[in-house]
Design goal:
about 475 residues, seven-stranded mixed sheet, six-stranded mixed sheet, 16 helices, 22 strands, about 40% helix
Length: about 475
């Protein structure tokens, strides 16, 4: 059974468990305990105890430890990638990319001596000076999703901890092994006991975090339904909340696009990570006369993609996380057919194979009224719609309740600028299929793709994990 971390000690629980699967085989590789309010409370109180000293530890000492953690992550990149592939299923190349993007946030955190600086202004009035200082918020909790078990925890706890907070991490019960290994490396770097604590579980553990009076802020990434629950329940208790949510990302392909480049980028966006990412392209909007050629070539390319275990060389699409999730994605495909979509490439031929595989699936003739055209699928399914103009494409993207990412492929600067200015999404790709910002910028979902004010990583995270104290002083 997977242990949990409280006050520097790894603990084995006698609680009920859930299986952790290898999605490529369907076999059970471990068991994760379903902890509840008592274990969460123990972790929070360990964080409170550690925070009393850690919050007053000089920033340079905190940063030196963070540099050591960064070096350990670098030295264990391949191990971490293999862990991701083993219990999530994505390809090793995708897992290596995940680890790299997580380490970039740790590197950003190492800039804390600059990032945590305040401001001062002398003589705001006669003999009066004013200073702004940043203070830690206290104990912070993080609830990452299953699809990036290393990267998204690294979006959360390094920035919070380097800012002087103590942290309680509740990884996804589907993919907890990455967080456990991160915590082991974190402790090896020399951080004090209790600064980072790890608890496991599902809804009971999440609600215990949201309700705990000694937790001051909660960072979450996951589905829209759960994000809304996290935001409403934690905010009702007076907590700061940053809750990144779902997506229905539209990719617009203009008639003047470099089609070779656009095809490769759309394939990667829609089917990379088996479609299990909130920046996945979900709807490709073909504008004008490009539609027929685009769909024909996209279908050929989708059918040619190699599906298999993520650790096998040459594989481009790994399995989905669970069989029940795969069944949900298949139901979307079937509903799309019933509502009038045409299946151009069909990945359902893999359903009888061992593991949780579903091949790249392409649906044409999709409208925003169809379930596949408006709801988040979170699998290797790409819907294609056909519109006459860029205005129509922007209107279709803006009709979604979610606004995480939108992208355009064009050789026209005017079209790209028009799209950038008018489309209602927080992350925009121009001839880029996955518009993921680097760790020093915020991950900026709009509309129902985010609940809160300050977004994950970048300077938004520094604002989120600190509170400001204003000092107005006069000395006679």
């Amino acid at each position: 059974m997977i242990p949990y971390l409280v006050g520097g000690s790894w603990v084995r629980s006698s609680a009920a468990t859930l299986p952790v699967y290898d999605p490529a085989t369907g076999g059970v590789i471990d068991e994760v305990p379903l902890l509840g309010a008592a274990e969460v409370d123990a972790a929070v109180r360990a964080a409170v105890d550690a925070n009393a000293k850690w919050s007053r530890t000089p920033v340079m000492e905190r940063v030196r430890l963070m540099f050591r953690f960064r070096d350990l992550l670098e030295g264990h990149r391949e191990e971490l990638a293999a862990i991701v592939t083993r219990h999530h299923g994505k390809t090793l190349d995708e897992a290596r990319g995940e680890v790299r993007r997580g380490v970039e946030v740790v590197e950003f955190a190492c800039g804390a001596p600059t990032l945590l600086q305040g401001r001062t202004l002398r003589d705001v009035a006669a003999g009066v000076d004013q200073d702004l200082f940043r203070f830690p918020v206290g104990v912070v909790a993080g609830i990452p999703p299953f699809n990036f078990p290393v990267m998204i925890p690294l979006w959360m706890f390094p920035l919070a901890i380097v800012a002087g907070n103590a942290f309680v991490l509740k990884p996804s019960e589907r993919t907890p092994l990455g967080a456990v290994r991160l915590a082991e490396l974190f402790m090896e770097a020399g951080f004090p006991d209790g600064v980072l604590n790890v608890v496991h579980g599902a809804k009971d553990a999440v609600d215990a975090i949201l309700d705990h009076p000694l937790i001051n802020a909660v960072s979450f990434v996951g589905s829209e339904k759960v994000a809304r629950h996290v935001y409403e329940r934690a905010a009702a208790g007076g907590k700061r909340v940053s809750a990144a949510s779902g997506a229905k990302n539209h990719i617009v392909v203009m008639p003047d696009a470099d089609l070779t480049h656009a095809l490769a980028a759309v394939l990667n966006s829609a089917f990379g990570n088996a479609g299990e990412r909130c920046l996945a392209g979900s709807v490709a909007v073909a504008v004008g006369g490009v539609h027929d050629r685009f769909v024909e070539q996209l279908g050929d390319a989708a059918r040619a993609m190699v599906v298999g275990p993520g650790d096998r060389p040459g594989v481009q699409v790994g399995p989905l996380i669970r069989d029940d999730h795969r069944k949900r994605v298949v139901e979307f495909i079937e509903r799309g057919e019933r509502e009038g979509a045409r299946v151009v490439a069909d990945g359902r031929n893999l359903l009888s194979d061992p593991g949780f595989f579903l091949g790249p699936t392409l649906l044409d003739g999709v409208s925003p009224e169809m379930a596949v055209g408006r709801q988040e699928i979170f699998g290797p399914v790409l819907s294609v719609s056909h519109v006459a103009t860029l205005d129509d494409a922007i209107a279709q993207a803006n009709s979604m309740s979610l606004g995480n990412m939108a992208a355009i492929f064009t050789s026209s600067g005017a079209a790209a600028r028009e799209f950038r200015e008018r489309v209602e999404a927080g992350m925009i790709g121009v001839n880029v299929g996955v518009a993921q910002p680097f760790g020093f910028y915020p991950f900026s979902g709009w509309k129902h793709s985010f609940f809160g004010d300050l977004h994950p990583h970048g300077t938004d995270a520094i604002e989120f994990y600190t509170r400001k104290k204003m000092v107005v002083s006069r000395w006679s």
